[in-house]
């Protein structure tokens, strides 16, 4: 015979698992690119980037560009598209120039 405490404990465990899985899906939807687009992004609109990987808990690997208006744009990985690598190179050069000019002011 199963005690009522065991049944309640099992029901509570099931609810906790369901809640945790919903939280994970919500976090993934907010923080991860779910798809990428191959439409070229003008360099004048972009201020930074980072690489999204599956090891970050995201299902899709992507290059995430942040615009000057703080919008996130999802592009393919640089190894898959030359235009993505070109945009990354421009951002890296701009970042190096900014760091050098800040270092001279101090």
TrEMBL record:
Record domain Chemokine interleukin-8-like: where: 29-91
Subcellular location: Secreted
Single annotated GO MF: chemokine activity
A GO BP annotation: immune response
Keywords assigned by UniProt, alphabetized: Chemotaxis, Cytokine, Disulfide bond, Inflammatory response, Secreted, Signal
Gene3D superfamilies: 2.40.50.40
A single GO cellular-component term on record: extracellular space
SMART domains reported for this sequence: SCY
Protein name listed in UniProt: C-C motif chemokine 19-like
Organism: Astyanax mexicanus (Blind cave fish)
């Amino acid at each position: 015979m199963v005690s009522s405490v065991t049944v309640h404990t099992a029901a509570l465990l099931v609810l906790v698992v369901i809640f945790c899985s919903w939280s994970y899906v919500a976090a993934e939807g907010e923080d991860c690119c779910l798809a990428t687009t191959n439409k070229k992004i003008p360099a004048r609109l972009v201020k930074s980037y980072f690489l999204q990987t599956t090891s970050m808990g995201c299902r899709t690997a992507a290059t995430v560009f942040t615009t000057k208006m703080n919008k996130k744009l999802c592009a393919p990985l640089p190894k898959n598209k030359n235009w993505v690598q070109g945009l990354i190179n421009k951002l890296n050069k701009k970042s190096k120039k900014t760091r050098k000019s800040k270092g001279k002011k101090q």
